[in-house]
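Re: [help] complex structure
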Amino acid sequence: MSTLEIKDLQVSVETEDGPKEILKGVTLTINSGETHAIMGPNGSGKSTLAYSIAGHPKYSITGGTVTLDGEDVLEMSVDERAKAGLFLAMQYPVEVPGVSVANFLRTAKTALDGEAPKLRTWVKDVNGAMNKMHLDPSFSQRSVNEGFSGGEKKRHEIAQLDILDPAFALLDEIDSGLDIDALKVVSDGINDFRAREAKSVLLITHYTRILRYVKPDRVHVFVAGRIAESGGPELAEELEANGYEKYTTAGV
Amino acid sequence: MTAAVQEALELDKVESHLHPEGSFDVEAHEVPKGREEIWRFTPLKRLKGIHDSAPFADGATKVEVEAAAGVTVETVAADADVRGTSGLVPTDRVSARAWAASTGATVVRVPTDTVVEGATIIRHQGTGSETAGAGHAVIVAEKFAKATVVLVFEGSAVVADNIEIVVEDGADLTVVSVQDWADDAVHLSTQHAKVGRDATLKHVSVSFGGDVVRHDFSAEYAGPGGSVESLGLYFADEGQHIEHRLFVDHTAPKTKSNVVYKGALQGEKAHAVWIGNVLIRKEAEGIETYEENRNLILTDGAWADSVPNLEIETGEIEGAGHASAIGRFDDEQLFYLQSRGISETEAKRLVVHGFFNDLIRHIGVPELEEKLTSTVEAELAKNINTLITKDNA
Ligand SMILES: Nc1ncnc2c1ncn2[C@@H]1O[C@H](COP(=O)(O)OP(=O)(O)OP(=O)(O)O)[C@@H](O)[C@H]1O
Ligand SMILES: [Mg+2]
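Output below.
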């Protein structure tokens, strides 16, 4: 079970000229097993929403609530949120020099499960996840994201999704920088995850392209720190045809 | 070409305050007061007088030798000819005093064409810090020899020493100096290498323990084509002063140097100093040099000084560069790791291991790798409380 409830979330960042409000009251409920897509123009606050849910220290929550199955997410530390079932695939995955992917994954899995993974199945699982994402097994020995191409970083995020198996996946522009083949590989990975029991996905994207492969239950248009409109999958098609213009001119 | 460079090209002798003319005469070196360029970072008050006139006596450390097959290790008298063959001439009072006071020298010799498996380990066990000891060692890799020599310093002691390294033509030598001293140790070491034609030296300095540890490593080239890799790893704890002064003197054409020092600092008044001097002489055409120092400050109250310095007397070089950084934990890295369920403390541990990992692997001495990784672990464990307290602050 994993129902994520975001109510009237307001978030600001510290800037040189003082705090700047970015999220201006976001309300959104994602029920267990649902996939929601958030679409919006550059700078509308999509990543801010994802980071705020995951607990990045840069963002201050100035109002509203976020709960996961009733538990107050905003009270939790970053790693506690992961342990509660949240996973954030980042728009720009971070490089961690000198820490091998293998070590990173094993440490994360151990932290999430409270015990070290069984050695025998573990290596197979990791190699399997890498394979599915068309990443050579040698990636396990490389430093986390260091020297990975943009597409490899994204595929590595989905390999982690597969291995760490959270309840709730926040995918921030997982499709950006992917060519069509890689997009299919990544979409297959997301769909494999969705096929598991009671998994929820919040898919943040700028383009409708990925929604051809990953079918959302709901689509939200995100503009200037708010949800401007919500609808079914047909809303994505409308955006594809007309763009964000209607919202940006009216909304701001 | 600037006028200054033009003028420098006219000079055979290099005038620079960073690498003065040396002398074996102790009295030619004034007692440092602390304002001198070469002493300005060193806490003289904590040197137990070895920079002044404190007496030296034998027996400050017990020495144990594990020689690899093919390597000879012997003790020779202070007046043996081998002393001085590296070209070491003391450039400060401590080095000059240690030279004058040492009653003998340990000579490690790798004969011509001998390729040695495994490391030769010379362990210095401190016997207490009441009296100071003066040490001298000469490590010689004869023509086309290949070997690894590890010097280990442990226990309590006050030591000033001169370590000479001679890498003859075509030889390939690795020298590792591990300062794993007890908390009260004082160690001032002057290490100088002469690198022959087409010879390779990898010099590694690893400093964990000790109250004051200052290592001056310098290298010069006896012919073209020589290569020096100078690596350093240090971990300064509360109150500790760890100082490294490097000087690569490119005295021959087509020579190479690559200096990489990395350190982590934690605790109140942990202080690390790194001075990286590289001189490219007029005759050193076609050389390549790079030096880098990175410091990771783990807690408040620790600080690092990092000063790279490049003096170039010829424009005809392949490449010269340097980098120096003093930083704290990267929030984005910690967030990324934590977002995968890893606790903040564990995330910091991973980042520190990562910071050192490449360097440790680069040292290329299997006997040491595990030990270094576990020592980094032990150092982190010491301060894990501080890291956690900071987390919750
Ligand atoms: N530290 C900061 N100082 C000032 N403005 C900031 C800061 N951090 C974020 N912002 C602003 O907040 C807004 C929202 O940024 P965010 O990254 O959430 O947008 P986004 O919708 O994810 O955009 P994109 O489609 O480009 O990924 C942007 O206008 C951005 O410039
Ligand atoms: Mg974004």
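Residues 344-363 of chain B form the longest helix (20 residues).
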